[in-house]
Amino acid sequence: MSTSPAPRRFSVSHGPAFWIVAVTFLLVMAYSTVPTPLYPLYEQRDGFPPFVVTMIFAAYAVGVMVSLYLAGHVSDWLGRRRVLLVAVLVSALSAVLFLFFTEVPGLLVARFVNGASIGILTATATAHLGELRARAKPDENTIVAASVSGAANLGGLALGPLIGGLFAEFLPDPLMLPHLVFLVVLIVAALALLLVPETVDVPTGDDRPRYRPQRLSVPAGSGRAFAVAAFGAFSGFAVFGLFSSLAPTFLVVTFDSPDHLLAGAVSFSVFAAAALGQLALVKLRMRTQLTIALLGCTSGLVLVAAGALLPALALFLIGGVVAGLGVGLLFKGALGTAIGLAEPARRGETLALVFLIAYAGLAVPALGVGAALAFVPAIVALVVFVGLVLVAMTVATVLMRRRAAR
Predict the structure, then answer these.
(1) 219 and 350 in contact (C-beta within 8 Å)?
(2) Burial of residue 70, with CB atoms counted within 10 A of its CB: 0-12 exposed, 13-18 middle, 19 or more buried
(3) If exposure means fewest CB atoms within 10 Å of the residue's CB, which of 188, 310, 393, 406 is most exposed?
């Protein structure tokens, strides 16, 4: 096969390049959740109901799913750096859309485009980080690159709402300024990526494979075990979806707390707990991690429901953190289960399907809760959601734990 490596003129070495990609990964992921504490401001400005908030949020999840399916794998033959650069520029395009198209249709399109950048980014950046680290430190355990990748992914998702809350609480024009600042940041990140070396040989001419969408596959003979893992990923991301889309609304309606920084801090704490839990407990056996996930998910969601019913904001916040810790470990367990079931040659196809199901969990339950808010009180919608997710997560975690024990 004839291949042509990407030009490496003006490139930095693999060690510094690893950190350039990691920081870029973090920044793009952070921008994807910056709008979380800003949703109440959009509601006040345009007068739309909470269900429209969940539609705008769901547009993001749909964008992630579509781009994962259509472009999540193309860096294997187009090149990591090139595809990563496209992902960052697509994210920058979403910032432009937020700045110039401020009505609901424009917000829907902007969130869809932003989601598309994430679908392109995640697999590409994860693969690129692993390859850069392997060349910079060939004798090092691969867990370092995997840990940095996971921290950039979930850490970025955690930082975004906190940054958005800071803009909304302390700086002028919070519906414009964050997008303008991140537009500049993303352009600088794109320029920095031009210095990063390519890590795959890019086929040229007739040797370049024909484009096809990402293949999705359920491991042969393991349909039931895979379904359990996928169900766990779906239910775990449902919790993330609730705190990423409707947490600010619940803070206003249930706790009479319109503080935008608090709204951002709530979402930040949930994602941060998930990220830190994965890093801190990485050396524990899978079965032990799933036990902690089960305890964290069940006790955390019970505290969330109790906090809403009393109402007690402290219980609600503590429950979110504890549930976030459990969800992080549950999702890690779901991925580990899927990897263990898949044939090595089809592992990417299996993981792609898990991620698509997980992001469906991010959107669909949140849409259901948002629609329910038009007919029932917020507390009722939240308690019913918690009950359904609690049952789903408990069943999935218990079954995965049994399989890990075997």
Answers:
(1) yes
(2) middle
(3) 406
pTM score of the predicted model: 0.88
Of 40, 107, 52, 51, which is closest to residue 262 (Cα–Cα)? 40
Q: Which of 6-15, 43-52, 230-239, 279-288 has the highest mean pLDDT?
A: 230-239
Percent of the chain with pLDDT over 70: 97
| Mean pLDDT of all residues belonging to the chain | 90
- Listed in sequence order, the DSSP H helices in 281-312 are 286-309
Place of tokens 């969130």: 111
Nearest 5°: CA angle at 86, between 80 and 91?
125
36 token code pair: 């979380």
Domain at 10-201, CATH class: mainly alpha
State how far the Cα of 134 lies from the Cα of 138, in Å rounded to an integer.
5
Residue tagged 């004839």 (tokens) = 2
Containing H/E element for 184?
helix 177-193
Number of helices followed by number of strands (H, E) in the chain: 15, 2
CATH code given to domain 215-406: 1.20.1250.20
**4 beta partners:** 202
At 3, is the secondary structure helix, strand, or coil?
A: strand
> Is residue 22 a contact partner of residue 152, using CB atoms and an 8 Å limit?
yes
- Cβ–Cβ under 8 Å, residues 264 and 33: no
φ and ψ at residue 203, rounded to 5 degrees: -65, 150
Domain locations in the chain as residue ranges: 10-201, 215-406
* Residue 105: partners with Cβ closer than 8 Å, 6 or more residues away: none
pLDDT band with cut points at 50, 70 and 90 for residue 9: low
Model pLDDT, residue 351? 82
> Which H/E stretch holds residue 114?
helix 104-136
Q: Select the more confidently predicted residue: 82 or 339.
A: 82
Using CA atoms, how far apart are residues 346 and 218, in angstroms rounded to an integer?
9
User: Residue 26: what pLDDT?
Assistant: 96
Tell me the pLDDT tens digit for each residue of 274-289: 989 988 888 888 899 9
Summarize the confidence of residues 243-249 as an average pLDDT. 86
Q: Which whole-number Å values give the CA distances from 192 to 4, 19, 157, 187, in the listed order?
A: 22, 11, 21, 9
CA-nearest of 323, 353, 319, 313 to 223 is 353
How far apart, in whole angstroms, are the C-alpha atoms of residue 115 and residue 111? Answer: 6
